[in-house]
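Key result, reporting period 2: structure in, sequence out.
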């Protein structure tokens, strides 16, 4: 789907590129949602865009994610998808500026998440956007708020797990697996956030002569640094949580080993006595005792009870 924002505040949606009557002077934003790679060539020809950077999205060099050419500015980065599943997924976002028009390329789930966030935080219908420049800065702000939103989501999950851990006395391997999932999601956000910060730093240099834009970008960078601190705080809490669960698991294992030790000692002494009198030697004086059997049974019982009393005084159980 294609959404075109006209300068008269009109918004039109199209299903096909062929339906669009492209008049750059009347447009300040075009959004491509759920586009296919096969559409890129047609988009490039229709809107006179250089989309070669799309083929370099996997490259780690910042030059593949931020391209400032004389007639076009290209930002290519990934953000974790905002979903209810345990794992986040990286989704691509591309923002291009050419002919004073902001071209945005999004996947459907990211589009929905950003729209929901915009509606919940901003009164976008009453927000006046007069130029492509204002819209571009507004989009940067929404993405920054999106990072804050997903970091808050991870933080809440960690807090809930911490509270459950403090109350629970039994732990499973699933608890450690869940911590690993949270750590992976947190790491994914940190990598994406670091990439976005580098892009904004380069963007700030490009707009250093435009005070208002430079100030806005500086504000977003400040917010992102605070978010980065929260990410590090999440890592610290996950380390504490992992150590706490491991300590409690070790205590549970120690209790099990103590119980096994008690059972082993209590059984081994009676087994030793029974083993002695189970030998088939001819000369065993106890065999002639009238009360040999009761004494042996009594010895078996005492050899079981005495270790129990000893371990009880040692507070092993």
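The corresponding designed sequence is given below.
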């Amino acid at each position: 789907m294609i959404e075109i924002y006209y300068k008269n505040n009109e918004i039109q949606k199209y299903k096909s590129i062929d339906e669009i009557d492209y008049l750059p002077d009347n447009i300040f934003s075009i959004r491509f949602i759920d586009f296919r790679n096969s559409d890129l060539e047609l988009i490039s020809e229709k809107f006179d865009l250089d989309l070669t950077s799309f083929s370099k999205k996997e490259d780690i060099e910042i030059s593949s994610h931020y391209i400032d050419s004389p007639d076009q500015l290209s930002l290519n980065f990934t953000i974790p998808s905002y979903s209810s599943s345990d794992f986040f997924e990286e989704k691509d976002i591309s923002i291009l500026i050419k002919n004073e028009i902001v071209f945005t390329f999004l996947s459907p789930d990211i589009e929905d998440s950003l729209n929901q966030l915009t509606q919940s935080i901003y009164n976008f219908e009453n927000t006046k956007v007069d130029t492509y420049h204002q819209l571009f800065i507004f989009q940067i702000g929404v993405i920054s708020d999106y990072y804050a939103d997903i970091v808050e989501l991870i933080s809440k999950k960690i807090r809930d797990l911490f509270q459950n851990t403090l109350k629970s006395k039994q732990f499973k391997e699933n608890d450690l697996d869940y911590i690993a999932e949270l750590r992976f999601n947190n790491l994914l956000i940190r990598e994406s956030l670091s990439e976005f910060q580098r892009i904004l730093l380069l963007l700030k240099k490009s707009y250093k002569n435009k005070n208002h834009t430079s100030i806005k970008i500086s504000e977003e960078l400040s917010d992102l640094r605070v978010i980065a601190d929260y990410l590090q705080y999440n890592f610290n809490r996950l380390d504490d949580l992992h150590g706490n669960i491991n300590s409690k698991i070790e205590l549970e294992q120690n209790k099990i080993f103590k119980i096994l030790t008690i059972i082993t000692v209590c059984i081994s002494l009676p087994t030793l006595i029974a083993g002695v009198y189970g030998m088939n030697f001819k000369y065993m004086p106890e065999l002639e005792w009238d009360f040999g059997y009761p004494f042996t049974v009594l010895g078996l019982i005492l050899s079981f009870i005495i270790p129990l009393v000893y371990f009880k005084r040692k507070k092993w159980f």
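The chain has a mean pLDDT of 80. The radius of gyration is 34 Å. This case is discussed further under Risks and Mitigation.
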